[in-house]
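Re: the request from the purification team.
They wanted to know what the chain is likely to look like in 3D before they choose a buffer screen. I agreed to run a prediction and write the result into the notebook, where they can find it.
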Amino acid sequence: MTKRSSALLSLVTAVSLVAPMAALAQQQQRREAPSLSEMSAALGVSEATLKTCVPAPGKPGAKGKPERPDAAKITDCLKAENAGLTVAAVEQTLRDFAPPPRKN
């Protein structure tokens, strides 16, 4: 076996070993979105109202994380359907349903 074919064989072997590990690492970084049906039930509003009032997660900000949703604005919007909601209750529900932190 020549040096060139030996190097090529080593490269192919390395790629075949690294590719599955990279794919696994990428899958482990994905976090599941919170259940809107469970969150809406906890807040006493419909899922449609919750989707309207809670903004979609934004792109990462300066610290690498999306900005936190404004609980006061969300509460004002949700009060159209459940007047008894408080900002504290919405903040607690957002914390309860927040995805777990990423494992590095």
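For the purification team: Residues 3-29 form the longest helix (27 residues).
Please add any questions underneath this entry.
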